Amino acid sequence: MHSTSLRELQAYSHQLMSLTAQQAAAEARYWITDNDTTNLESLITQLQQQPFIAAVQIHDRYGQLMVATNGQQEDELEAAATLVLVEEINSGSRHDGYLTLLIDEQALLAQPVRIHQYLAFYGQFLLGFAILAGVFITITFNRWRYRQPKSLVESE
After folding, report:
1. Cβ–Cβ < 8 Å for 59, 37
2. Per-domain boundaries in the chain
3. 93 phi and psi, to 5 degrees?
4. In what order do the strands lie in the sheet with 82-91?
5. Which of 30, 35, 82, 101 is the most exposed place for a label (fewest CB within 10 A)?
6. From CA 60, how far away is CA 81, in angstroms rounded?
7. CB 13 within 8 A of CB 47
8. Which pLDDT tens digit goes with each residue over 87-126?
9. What is the largest CA-CA distance in the chain?
10. What is the second-level CATH architecture of the domain 2-107?
11. What is the value of pTM for the model shown?
C-alpha cells in the first residue's frame, strides 16, 4: 500500500506538469502570433521560477528558437533524470510553435515523497490515538457490564 500511494502521488505530479505545459502553451499562443518576445520571456521566466523546471524554450512554427531560459548546463541535465515535455502551440487549426519544458525529475518526485512521509506519520499517529481510545472504551464498557447492582450490595 505504501508504494502504491507513493506511485499515485508521483503520477499526479506528472499530470500536473503536463497541465502546466498545456496552460503555458495556451498563454504563449497569444504572444507568439504577435511575435511579442517580451511577454514570451516573461512567461518562461515565471515557469523557470519553479524549482523543478530546469529550462524552458519556445520555438516558432519553423523550429527556430524564439526565447529560452539560461537553465542548467546540458551536462548537468544529462546527468540528472530529465523529463522533456513538448507542447504544441496552436491557434485554431494553425500550428504556431512549440513549448519545451525540461524538468528535473528528481526534484519533481521529491515533493510527493515528503508529502507521503508526512501523511504516513500522521496516519500512524491517528492509528495510535484510535488504539488508545479503544482501550479506554473497552475498560469503561467492562466496568459498566460487571458492576454490582446497588440492591444486591445493600442486602448483603
Report:
1. no
2. 2-107, 109-155
3. -95, -5
4. 65-68, 53-60, 94-104, 82-91
5. 35
6. 27
7. no
8. 998 888 888 899 999 988 887 777 777 777 888 888 999 9
9. 103
10. 2-Layer Sandwich (3.30)
11. 0.65
